Each structure stands twice: as C-alpha cells, then as structure tokens.
Amino acid sequence: MLSAVDVDGYYVVARSSNEEYIISDAKWMMGLAKLLTCLKLQKRRVILAYTNHQGLIAALAHVDAIASGNYMNTRQFVPGRFRSKKEDLELRKSNWYFHPYAMTEYKADLLDIAYNRRFIDSFRPLGEFRNPYSEMLFSGIEPSLTNYNETKAFMHYLHCLNVLCHSLTLDSFDSCMDHFSFLLDNAENLIKQYKERGMRSQNRDFGTGIEALRIAAAMINEDYGFRLRIDWPSM
C-alpha cells in the first residue's frame, strides 16, 4: 500500500510509451495520471520529472511541481539517450520556438514563413508569456535574421512552461479542470488553423496528445474527483 511507505514525497520518472515526445497513448497517460493522483491523495509531496508541457495534467492531481529542461532528454525519459555519445546528441539538436497558446513547438525557420505571409503576430507571446528571450522574433524583420538562438529558445520555453504551471495553480479542483480543458481546446483550435496554412510541427505537435490528455483528465474526474474536491485545500 502506498500509505505504508514511510517517505515525505515522491520524485516520479516515467518512461514515455514508444519513446514519443508528445504521447498519444491514452492508456499510458491514464496510468500516469492515476499514479500521480493516488500519491497526492496520500498527502505526500510529488514531483513529476523529465516531462514537457504535456505533464501539466499533473495539476489535476494537485502535484507540487514538474521538472523539465532544455533538450528533449530532459523533457522525456528515454534511457538510451543517456548512453548516446555526446556527438550524436549534438547532431539531433534544432532551434525551436514554443507557441504558448498552441502549446506546440515549431522549428524557428517556419517563423520566416509566418512573417512573409503576414501572420507572425499570431505567434507573439502576450501578457505574462512575454519575455526577453523571444521578443526579437517579433521586431519587424525576418526572425531568422535576429539573434534568436538555442539558449534563448529553451529559456523562452521554460518561461512559458512556468507561466502555464502558475495558471493551473488554483484554489479548487473544478477551477483547475476547467482551465486545463480551456488550454486543450484553445491549443487544438490554433493547431488546426496553422495546419490549414501548411504550418506543421512534426514530432512536437501537441495535437497528437490532446485526446490522450482529455481521456486521462476524464478518468481523474470520474474516479477521484469526489476525493480531490474535498481534500484539495489540504493537499
């Protein structure tokens, strides 16, 4: 029994199914969501590690924090990457831009297309998402001519992820569920609009994982919602 384990908290590292960056496997996502929820309902501190923005579902379990990083091997746990030669990892790096509303990462080169076709402003981060790491992309020249680089790309990503985490740090389970659903719906609509204009994101397309997240969120609500609503203030 989890309650019999005498620890203050858990640092959860979950290996993604089929080594997907954005996980489409609903059963896997349900299993992770169930684990996190059960651990938190035992009134333990829980951190979900090696995750990307898909790990925001942990907010529905009132998880204390998620841990992410710059490159893909710190946003998903694939043991083989830790055994790869450094040179091999360097070859696989690309420069990406995280769209905080579509919750999708696009290769930075695609922003030139958006600029030349005059919809670059739809990629612009607003409000709390604004940050000095990506503002040069929207300065009125082709993004590829700016000094946006790999370091700025991951700093922008982590800034946006932090804002998203805070947006889901709410006073009740229902308000958290409502906002999480809004984020998914909004991302899905934007991704569809971009695809209609030929803008696709390859293996970092958040759209491939939205259905799995919705199913896992529904499971949390149906199986644990009653307990979470009662225990939320003390978790």
Strands in their spatial order, largest beta sheet: 1-2-3
Largest β sheet strand count, sense and barrel closure: 3 strands, parallel
Run of helices and strands: EHEEHHEEHHHH
Tell me the number of helical segments per DSSP (H or I, 4 or more residues long). Answer: 7
Beginning-to-end CA distance, first to last residue: 19 Å
How many E strands? 5
Radius of gyration: 18 Å
Strand content of the residues, in percent?
5-15%
Oligomeric nature of the chains: single chain
Unreliable stretches (pLDDT < 50, length at least 5) are 87-91
Instruction: List the domain count as a whole number.
Output: 1
Principal-axes shape call: elongated
Give the class from helix and strand content and strand pairing: mainly alpha
Mean pLDDT: 90
Helix content: 40-55%
